[in-house]
Amino acid sequence: xxxxxxIFSNWIIETYGNxxxxxxxxxxxxxxxxxxxxEYFNVSAKYRVKRxxxxxxxxxxxxxxxxxxxxxxxxVQTTRENGGKLFVESYEPLHKRRFLLHGHEYMxxxxxxxxxx
Length: 117
What we know:
Distance between the termini: 39 Å
Order of helices and strands: HEEHHEEEEEE
Structural class: alpha+beta
Shape: elongated
């Protein structure tokens, strides 16, 4: 990408400048002023396409998702968690049913006799 290093350096300078950062400190404790970042570093980036598929709910979000489910009229018989995944048994058809919670989209997927979110 033409001028890629310059573009990325300017983005870093602007982003950290907006956060009030005035200096960078390197591993050898050299203190560098943020506005001269591009003089000290050659910045590069790689474009990566996100893999397809969904992520686990995550241990820290399971209680929030359970609260949401219980307060939004989902018919749930049992719930359990395992490895950051939430498993739900329901007589209601939940497969591919989606909901938004705190800016994240969640979806139920049928696995054997229970739904995974």
